[in-house]
Write a structure and sequence with these properties.
Layout: E1 15-21, H1 35-43, E2 58-66, E3 72-81, H2 87-104, H3 111-117, E4 121-128
Parallel strand pairs: 1-4
Antiparallel strand pairs: 2-3, 2-4
Length: 136
């Protein structure tokens, strides 16, 4: 076990996950007890925004923290978007991502997972393959 971290967590210490969106057929099966179970639950709330369909592949990463009860601490931030040069597309994508996080929180998590992730930054990358499902 290493020495305790002093100061803010850096991105390599951030809990990270990538999900393909939209998630189809995600049933509510109870509280998430692992990060692997949490990421698809959060991604299930993301909806393809109108006006984004013309793009073949879109990615956006949001960074936020959760409390022990699964609610968001502060305001999520968008830290990356493939639509950075198209201001209108960036705004549409950002609004859809922040709305998805609001819809899915507080997330249903177990007390053990809540204790493990409380206050730690989570970077969640949403990947939308576009209407044709093409992309890397």
């Amino acid at each position: 076990m290493g020495a305790p971290t002093t100061g803010p967590l850096t991105l390599p210490e951030t809990l990270r996950g990538t999900v393909q969106v939209p998630q189809q057929g995600m049933a509510e099966t109870g509280a998430a007890d692992t990060l692997k179970a949490l990421y698809p639950i959060l991604a299930a709330c993301w909806e393809v925004p109108p006006g984004l369909a013309r793009f073949e592949r879109t990615e956006i990463t949001a960074r936020f923290s959760l409390r022990r009860d699964g609610s968001v601490i502060g305001t999520p931030r968008v830290t990356f978007s493939t639509q950075g040069t198209d201001t209108r597309a960036y705004r549409i994508l950002t609004d859809a991502t922040l709305a998805a996080i609001r819809r899915c929180t507080p997330a249903r998590i177990t007390p053990a997972l809540g204790a493990a992730i409380a206050g730690r930054p989570i970077a969640l990358r949403f990947v939308y393959q576009g209407p044709k499902g093409q992309g890397v």
